[in-house]
């Protein structure tokens, strides 16, 4: 099974170069230059991963990510010439799973795509698909690692792939206190690319999705000066 990449980049020469490289690497690539084209193509192409520029004609890449997140948890890699921390944080907070600053090496782009696909449990060619297993239930939250789904009181909740990885680690180890560095190591391994503060962004988003009162969390507790823990 070949991996399908939806590339949204308004710089035609750059889009052509990226698409050519990805196709040489064995990906099936569709490239578009506008958000409206991407939204039209998405349900027909059903990509395994989306690579989108932050600055697009007539819209902002964050708005496009938000539109995708209304109905999909597909991995999303944001690319941009911006090196501003606030732009990276906003993209991650809005649902992007990774952020790559221009100019970048095409080999790094390929490595980031593969890392996101590994974390989203998408099978590579010749790799067997895992059999589905029922979700295990521990209190308020249930997690199905094979389908990569999260349920709150029996209702499926849409989360980004990084949010799922954080929740999975907390869920597997109720009561264990994780430092931000430990969570980053568990999620990204040797490919850590963010500052610790981004863990706080993802935790804040998770709390909004699973906590009855996100401002007074019952399940994902802050351990001041250390990190976070999950309480059943």
Automatic annotation (TrEMBL):
Keywords: DNA-binding, Phosphoprotein, Transcription, Transcription regulation, Two-component regulatory system. Transmembrane segments: none annotated. Pfam families: Response_reg, Trans_reg_C. GO terms for molecular function: phosphorelay response regulator activity; transcription cis-regulatory region binding. One of its GO terms (biological process) is regulation of DNA-templated transcription. One of its GO terms (cellular component) is cytosol. It is found in: Cytoplasm. This is Two-component system response regulator RegX3. The lineage of its organism: Bacteria, Bacillati, Bacillota, Bacilli, Bacillales.
